[in-house]
Amino acid sequence: MSHPEVGERLASIKHVVLVLSGKGGVGKSSCTVQLALSLASQGHKVGVLDIDLCGPSIPRMLGLEGRQIHQASAGWVPVYADSSKRLSCMSIGFLVDKNTSVVWRGPKKNAMIKQFLADVYWGDLDYLLVDTPPGTSDEHLAAVEYLQEWQPAGAIVVTTPQAVALADVKKEINFCHKVGLPVLGVIENMSGFVCPHCSECTNVFSTGGGEGLAKHYDIPFLGRAPIDPNLVMLLEQEDKTVVPNVNDPSAEKEQTLSIVDTYQRCELSKVFASIATYLDQHLTEK
Q1: What is the pLDDT of residue 272?
Q2: Is the pLDDT reported for residue 237 higher than 90?
Q3: For the purposes of burial, counting CB atoms within 10 Å of the CB of 266, is it exposed (0-12), middle (13-18) or buried (19 or more)?
Q4: Global model pTM greater than 0.90
Q5: DSSP states of the chain
């Protein structure tokens, strides 16, 4: 079935990338945010579409909670995370109170996702990152159905290293194969905890599982992302311009212009900068 109204919106977007995980709690949304921040810091214009309708967390992570979207003649205007408008976001979290549960059946979820894809005026974007809920259910099928005709770039799959997460991520990769969605690579998240005091790495959830999975399916392994206490503090704090410092919380606070700049002070930004660079090179060459 053709969806020309979706195609009209996607015409101004170079690359559409879905971020998937078969398991909840693996840090998929934080990976989406970090990838978006890294791409924006490299000069790209990036949009983040949050289709986790029952658990939208992107607005809070980007410091946009409580903001409202506006209706313009061209459609819904996304919410911007920085003054230069390099990073924009759309989420159900902007449309409902943060304490209100979204109790919808499949058809209403599908209609909401279609409206996001057809009605949001992103303008010219280099990347649209689509943050999805865990699993392979209505939201995923709807997104693939509406996007497939316009050939999305593919999907990034997020996992943690332990076997219980890998078992579900295998199903997510199988889903991608069934619907013809290219898998761009695997990120092994929470792969160790680096102590902020002594820099020693402890493999809390083991390590290497994501890399082994990528080798098994012959898909790119994008990298390991350890737990970074400064990132946790950044995503939790309200003021995203304050540089987090878990080693000395009482120290004088350093400030930046936006969350895009603040994130670059986190050690984990180096990992996602290399992932963003690889992704951009790979998609540019295609």
Answers
A1: 97
A2: yes
A3: buried
A4: yes
A5: ---HHHHHHHTTEEEEEEEE-SSTTS-HHHHHHHHHHHHHHTT--EEEEE--TTS--HHHHTT-TT---EEETTEEEPEESSTT--EEEEEGGGTS-TT------HHHHHHHHHHHHHHB---SEEEEEEE--SSSSHHHHHHHHHHHTT---EEEEEE-SSHHHHHHHHHHHHHHHHHT--EEEEEEEEEEEE-TTT--EE-BTBSSHHHHHHHHHT--EEEEEEE-HHHHHHHHSS-TTBPP-TT-TTSPPPB-SSHHHHHTTSTTHHHHHHHHHHHHHHHHH-
